């Protein structure tokens, strides 16, 4: 009788804890969602055909920069601002052995306001790059896509003409909805330092073909890599190539346009075969792994730091090289604080033959918040480093176990 009572009391306490913690954090999640979806005023831009033409012309310039993939064919009339904005991204494709055939940029103006005769707009840009490359089995054509938000200033130079004088990329850095409890401690950076951006770029430029780790005979993966990657590729490609509710699997919770990277990664890992775990009703219990626990976001499912700790203990191995194979995970510490704040997955990888005769191992990544579909990791890193040069990268490779 006493044992039964203790068990009952333990479950009751766990239930009360879950209910107690659910209310304030549910409100926080709701507020975050409201901020993401709040109505925006684009009247100033929508009613100004000159401003619209200026943005259209600038987008054409950006597309031209992408498509001019060697110095000999770069056109002299390309805007220097456009070159500064995406030229370094184009170069990462070239460096990875990918020859850009076409670039298309779709825009959506989110906000617009006047500053005297000038105009400021926040614009969502989705860039689709079609490219060719030579692999071990011959020539291939593929595509990648990425979505970013740009703050643009249009300066009026005549009564009916604007010129774009500034284009600032809004940093991707994410705020988790599943906030850390006050007792949560950062990583011991001395024992788990991750990789600096300089180390990552050096590895990606290497021609050492001894990596990544491959499966071995008589073993199976804890998480099936291709199944995970297939899920991530499906839900980042059209018609799901955005960060709004309709771009996500409705079987799972949605945390808002800026807060769902780890939730999405967990979905892909689950699609690869990692099963839910529920030891009690406490959403903060590090042993639990489930999307929702008692109407509350599961901490290890939605929070990047908690997810990293869970995955390296249960399904993946810490790896000291970013060049990993399909299905591997990458966690990012944006502020080098010892706590992860972002998560993404390698969704394809392979050897590419460069015209110089060199061979590179090229991983491509997919993620949500913001949506990226099979983008070269080198491109992703170059953009991230420009936003924050001090961030740290924490690779987790697929774990193989004996049959």
From TrEMBL:
<feature type="compositionally biased region" description="Low complexity">
    <location>
        <begin position="178"/>
        <end position="192"/>
    </location>
</feature>
<feature type="domain" description="Putative amidase">
    <location>
        <begin position="228"/>
        <end position="379"/>
    </location>
</feature>
<keyword id="KW-0732">Signal</keyword>
<feature type="signal peptide">
    <location>
        <begin position="1"/>
        <end position="28"/>
    </location>
</feature>
<dbReference type="InterPro" id="IPR024301">
    <property type="entry name" value="Amidase_6"/>
</dbReference>
<feature type="region of interest" description="Disordered">
    <location>
        <begin position="172"/>
        <end position="192"/>
    </location>
</feature>
<protein>
    <recommendedName>
        <fullName>Putative amidase domain-containing protein</fullName>
    </recommendedName>
</protein>
<dbReference type="Pfam" id="PF12671">
    <property type="entry name" value="Amidase_6"/>
</dbReference>
